[in-house]
Design goal:
The protein contains six helices and 14 strands. The chain is an alpha/beta fold. The chain has two domains: 89 residues, no CATH class; 172 residues, Rossmann fold (3-Layer(aba) Sandwich). The strands form three sheets. It has a six-stranded mixed sheet with strand order 7-6-5-8-9-10, sandwiched between helices. A four-stranded antiparallel sheet has the order 4-11-1-13, with no helix packed on it. Helix 1 runs antiparallel to helix 2, helix 1 runs parallel beside helix 6 and helix 4 runs parallel beside helix 5. The longest helix has 12 residues. The protein is globular, with a radius of gyration of 19 Å.
Amino acid sequence: MRLPAFGAGLALAGLASTALAQAPAPSPSPSPTPKPFILEVEVYVVSVTAVVFDKGGHFVKGLGAKDVTVLEDGVPQELTYFREAGEGEEKIPLSVVLVLDASGSMKNNLHFLQEAAQSFIHKLEEIDSALVVQFNETIKGSAEFSSDLDRLDEFIDALQAWGGTSLYDAVHYGLGRVKDQPGRKAVVVFTDGADTTSRMGEQEVVDYARAVEATVYGIGFKGDGYGGSPRGFLKKISSETGGSFFAPDNVADLIKIFAEISKELHNHYAFAYSPKRSPDGSWRTIQVKVDRKDAEVRVRKGYFAVKRRRPPSPRPASP
């Protein structure tokens, strides 16, 4: 059984990702953006990833389709697909992009970041794959998504701290690389300073993230970064995509944070529904409610509804 290949506010149409070579390349130039910002997201079926916690912060497991209510613009929807990550023989694959700050201000702390990133990729499961992006005033990404831990380790080992901070361009690039990958998609961003050299603007990148089926996790360390704090941007983009923001006081805490993110990425619910309203290009909010008093749900805030060809029907939801 494969996950349904739909994108629903979560998949981008007509925006092809560009692979970067191993050699450093200039930051990608932004494409012209229509105003108001509406990306063409192909949709007949909306896919949703939700993380469910109890009040103690523990993952809530064992829920069925009957325990979940999905609201689109406040209107209940009928689930057509429901799956708990790790449930049964077939697991949901994870595709993750690590976007790592290698600007000059990271010189004294780069080894902590490398150790934490390598610890993270070694927690990937056999069906998972990762891509590593390093950024300063340029952006350099590993050639392809890979599950080869040795290759990923080598790329992380090669990080060198120099130059400015093209944070917005790097996050946009990471989102573009992951958007067409299968299964669960995530972008994990680490930086110790605010953007100083990007061509793109903060809101452009946040809007792009809202239309990509990827959860963003932001880690903002208050180190020797120049130009102020990145925390506002990272909080916003994480919230919009159903992710989390972390602000460690000590860079030595990074291994613990990366481990927490890894655990969450492998403990979630994936479900889908066919919207009751026809696609009309509008932004639609998504809300997920769980029939359990102590449950808290984190999910992306919505999607753009633009018509497309109807995809193959996914497996019916089971209670």
